[in-house]
Amino acid sequence: MSDERYSQIIKMINRADDVAVYCHTNPDGDTLSSALALYSALKKQGKKVNIYCDMPVPSKYLCLHNSENIAFPSKGVHELAISVDCAGIDRLGQCMKSYLSAKAQIAIDHHKSFARFAEVCLVESEACACAQIIFKLLKQIKAIDKDIAGLIFAGIVTDGGCFAYSSVTQETHNIASELLSYDIDGSDIIYKVFRSTELNKFQLKCRVLQKCRFFSNNQIAVIVFADSDFSATDTSASDTEGIISELIAINDVKVAYALAEVGSHNFKLSIRTKYDIDASDIAMTMGGGGHAAAAGCRINGYLEDVIEKIVKLANDRLPI
Length: 320
Description:
This protein is of the alpha/beta class. Helices cover 38% and strands 19% of the residues. The chain contains twelve helices and twelve strands. It has a six-stranded parallel sheet with strand order 3-2-1-4-5-6.
């Protein structure tokens, strides 16, 4: 992405006194960290800033600086709305109306499947995390301090799989190194946002993994988070993040699916792939999107029919 687009966004931000920053629904570490970094930087500039999400912040991310300020949109029209880590307008969930009512909109994203929905879009699909783009934006306006550096580091850690995913590049490592120069505690951030877990979430993980199903000579793996699993462990669909990584780490598995029941015959589907199988290609056939190795969507139907469908989609893409 050219410096011209960064300059255009900086000019729009400088002109606006009232800015709203939007996370995507079912917020993860990247959207929260990116939005909070931008929010914190604009607050430092003396602007009136709000930060919105249509769902509560998951407990493991409450450690993020300024996370207590994330709220559901209130009535009123903002001068400038900025979405972060949203590949499509639908990812804003119930915040969509508030976002579209603003006088001007900016979208900052890193998904391969990004669908243009804002007046100005800053998209770098080669970035492992949206936080990586936010870093370059805030560096240009000299707004990074220790708290903001910690937020950006957290976003990179969560979406980059603690630097293990194929999306992590030399630029990612260079940025992480620069962030550490702000005297942040990298190991503590990694523990809090990537490794730590609560007992009930560990119990949820144990329940679903022991019921994992394998197909096509163990090349496809499927786990299902049913309502009964959530009830038994006092958890919800927001507590499933990261568990799918256990499947794609299995040597034989090339496509991993996690289905989380979120309504009657309605599921949230997470997809992880490796060996050049495109996860976003699978997701887009069902109206979703994402990255080459990680994607997702919503899917309706009876569970066994859904499993049959997604296994076929994976089979069609397995190497011969």
